[in-house]
Specification:
The chain is mostly helical. The protein folds into 3 domains: about 1-45; about 55-110, SH3 Domains (SH3 type barrels, Roll), CATH 2.30.30; about 120-205. Helix content is about 70%, strand content about 10%. The chain contains 3 helices and 5 strands. The chain has helices at about 1-20, 25-45, 115-249; strands at about 55-60, 70-75, 80-85, 90-95, 100-105.
Length: about 250
């Protein structure tokens, strides 16, 4: 809109210069110039953008020249079968779907369908890709959530591992202490066995000593008894002899 205004202002300025010049001071000329100016301004104000249509048609002729008759008009995007190509003349012989044959300019032939015919397919592919992208985003979001869960689970496993490692170290210390206690217990058991052997030996010696003392006392008692018996037998006889001796006196 500003470009149109600048153009109109420039035209007005130039026309005013020519109108005010000494050569063009007649009323009729000024009126004509104003009419032209108004027409130009109206044309500038009503200008709008247009586009060239892509609905084109290519002539298929009976020969390799514009002088040959037109056999058919081919719409852009129509599929044709290539029969022969003349690179020097720039024409290609083709056959259409109905079986009609003719020559067309080679520069109008392309190896892929035109953009207008491919547009629905491209739009469908874009729609499919958008759906896939949305699905991938959902998958990525779900994967991010699962990743967070896995990180939390990993941290929990790490905490459990560290706690288990500490407990294992404590068990190793306790096991070492238990081993020391067991070794000490074995030494004490060995000492007890040695002392028990010594006690058994002393008991045997004591028993032997007791047996000897008993035997000695038995011998002493037997000796005393024997002496007593002997005295019991001898003393009465001695008394009888003394009496008989005294009787003889």
């Amino acid at each position: 809109m500003s470009l149109k205004s600048d153009t109109a202002a420039a035209l007005v300025e130039k026309l005013q210069y020519w109108i005010n010049s000494p050569i063009m001071t007649t009323p009729m000329f000024k009126s004509s110039v104003l009419t032209v100016l108004l027409a130009l301004l109206a044309g500038a104000a009503s200008a709008e953008t247009r586009y060239i249509t892509d609905q084109l048609e290519v002539t298929m002729r009976s020969g390799q020249s514009t002088r040959n008759a037109i056999v058919r008009m081919l719409r852009s995007g129509a599929a044709v079968e290539v029969l022969e190509t003349d690179a020097e003349a720039g024409y290609t012989k083709v056959r259409v779907s109905g079986g009609t044959e003719g020559w067309v300019l080679t520069r109008f032939l392309v190896s892929q369908p035109v953009a207008r015919d491919r547009l629905p397919q491209v739009q469908q592919e874009v729609s499919t890709l958008r759906e896939q992208l949305a699905a991938l985003r959902d998958t990525a979001s779900a994967a991010a959530g699962e990743n967070s869960d896995l990180i939390a689970e990993r941290d929990q496993f790490r905490s459990d591992y560290e706690r288990t490692a500490r407990e294992l170290e404590e068990l190793r210390v306790k096991a070492s202490n238990v081993l020391q206690v067991d070794q000490q217990n074995q030494r004490l058991n060995t000492r007890v066995d040695s002392l028990q052997s010594e006690v058994d030996r002393l008991s045997m010696e004591n028993d032997d000593l007791s047996s000897k003392r008993t035997l000695e006392w038995f011998v002493v008692g037997a000796s005393v008894l024997f002496v007593g018996v002997l005295l019991g037998l001898i003393l009465p006889r001695l008394r009888m002899r003394r009496r008989s001796g005294w009787g003889d006196l």
